[in-house]
Structures are given as structure tokens and as C-alpha cells.
Give the backbone structure.
Amino acid sequence: MATKATKATKATKATKATKATKATTGRVDSTLDVEELRQAIREEYATVARTPEQGFHFHTGRPLANLLGYDDAWLDGIPEGTVASFAGTGNPFRPGMGVLLPGESVVDVGCGAGFDSLIAARMVGAEGSVVGVDMTPAMLAKA
Ligand SMILES: C[S@@+](CC[C@H](N)C(=O)[O-])C[C@H]1O[C@@H](n2cnc3c(N)ncnc32)[C@H](O)[C@@H]1O
């Protein structure tokens, strides 16, 4: 029941973020409250940072990394908390996406708890650099 109530609350927030009005023509005009949407996203990812074990409508953690084809060796040495809060939408290291070379500089926009940043840091090595940027303070605190 608690889970359903939580989902209902999230759905309400998402609905509020998009204020839709149906015109007489049958077309739907929608006005997006960007700040409200941003706050809803921030709250969702703060939950992924703080209680990743609770379960979400998207995959997270090590199972997600496996689904996206992350090499097991890349995860070696990454803190379990960071792995647990991984919520990526793709694998930037997969073949065909380019290779990070030692000494390169990387900016990880939407770095979350730092999963990809830490993998990238190992690839670019001590001569390279990685900067993570995220709009969710709880994610940055974990990173
Ligand atoms: C899908 S998660 C991916 C997190 C991380 N890359 C990972 O692999 O676990 C998206 C992250 O991007 C952040 N984010 C979304 N929109 C952003 C924006 N406009 N600027 C900065 N961070 C953003 C969220 O706070 C969230 O932590």
C-alpha cells in the first residue's frame, strides 16, 4: 500500500508539472512548468541517491550496468553505494562510442553518484581529469 501511495504521489507531481488544457478543437495545449519539473526530477534522483534499494520504475544498480553491457572489470573498486545508485540511461563506454585515452579531460553532465565518472577517471588516468556535474545535491553528496 505504501508503495502505491508513493507512486500515486509521484504521478500527481508529474501531472502537475505538465499543465494540460484541452481546447474545444480537441487539441491538447500543454504548458510545462520547467521549475516544477526540475524539482520533481531532483526529488526522484535524491531518492535514488539515499535509498537505492527501494525500487523504481526504471532499472538501477548492478543489474542495470549488466543490462547496458558494462564490463565487470570496470566496476572493480567502485564503491558499492555508487554502484547501487547508478541510474544511467546508456553506456557511454560501449564499442562504437569512442575510447577515452590516458590524459584526456572529461565532463560528465548528470553524473549522479559518480558511476561513469569513476570509470572514466580510471581510463584517463592520473594525467587526465574528470569533472562531474549534477543538479541533485544528494547525488553530488554521494559522489
Ligand atoms: C539518469 S540519471 C544518470 C546518473 C548518472 N550518469 C549515472 O550513470 O548513474 C540522471 C542524472 O542527471 C541529473 N540531471 C538531470 N538533468 C540535469 C541537468 N539539466 N543538469 C545537471 N544534472 C542533471 C540528475 O540529477 C540525475 O542525477
